[in-house]
Amino acid sequence: MPVELFRHIVKKESSSYFQTFTPSSDLTSVIEYFFLYTIKSSQKEELAFADGIPILAFLVKKPSAIQFHTATDTLATITEGYLSGFFLEKTYIEPLYPNQQMLGVRFKATGLYNLLRKPLSTLAGQIFHDVDTLFGGNKPVLNESFTITEKINAIENWIREQLKDHIVSTSLFEEIISYICTNQSEINLRELAVRFKVNYKWIERKFLVYIGLTPKEFIRLQRFLPCLFELQETNGIDLMGLAINHGFYDQNHFIKEFKRFTQKTPLQFLKQG
Predict the structure, then answer these.
(1) What is this structure's pTM?
(2) Which residues form the signal peptide (predicted)?
(3) In this structure, are residues 148 and 103 in contact, taking their beta carbons and an 8 Å threshold?
């Protein structure tokens, strides 16, 4: 997903470019919310990111196409619906048409697992997953003439068909996810296990099954996003302070992690916009 989208998600900010919609009451255990995100006409290439919580996105304004690429290679071009990869590094996304609209399903942490009913670790390691392939050719029909409300209704009906009343109770895992998201820079996995009275190995197994990541990978994603946004807001005037405040050992640790995600140093990233 475009990293700018996560600015709205993390900061819970609505704008003319980002609106959220509450799911029907029978789907709130699976879906956190729907969103409509308009990619600004001025936006060119930007960092592609995933925060570990599954998002299913549909490009709903024709013509539509977005391209994933690295510094040297084009990876894929998407024209309809896709599930973002769970852990992206050194990947960029570029809209091929101006003012494209993305209608997204922001799942609860375990929502996609309930939809697919298989360990999400089986999907790990890919940049994206095409909706057609993911669901065996069964995808929601979103006619271009539909209003946004009608498109959301169509997606909800499709999700109900996939669920077939088969929802696994995962409230404890959702609590753990919520705690990590609130305390990204202060997480110790052993302390986490003690706090929630579970075995560390249980946490590790559930992460791989429910979201396809290890706990450490998920914590890295959650720590990096607010750090990136603060870097942009402060224009990198205090990298050491930024690093320490977000749980990195020191400035070098932060820069190394930053380059793993973006292939650039923080100052290079700011300079290139």
Answers:
(1) 0.91
(2) none
(3) yes
Contact at 8 Å (CB) between 121 and 212? yes
Asked if 191 and 141 sit in the same domain, the reply is no
- Tell me the C-alpha distance between 97 and 251, whole Å: 38
DSSP 90: S
Predicted confidence (pLDDT) per residue in 13-71, tens digit: 778 889 999 999 999 999 999 999 998 765 678 899 999 999 999 999 888 899 999 88
Do both 159 and 225 map to the same domain?
A: no
Shared domain check, 173 and 159: no
**184 backbone dihedrals φ, ψ, rounded to 5°:** -55, -45
**Domain count of the chain?**
2
Length of the chain: 273
Q: What is the pLDDT of residues 163-180, one digit of tens each?
A: 987 778 789 999 999 999
- Output the domain CATH number for residue 185: 1.10.10.60
| Amino acid (1-letter code) at residue 181 | C
In degrees and rounded to multiples of 5, residue 149 shows phi and psi of -60, -40
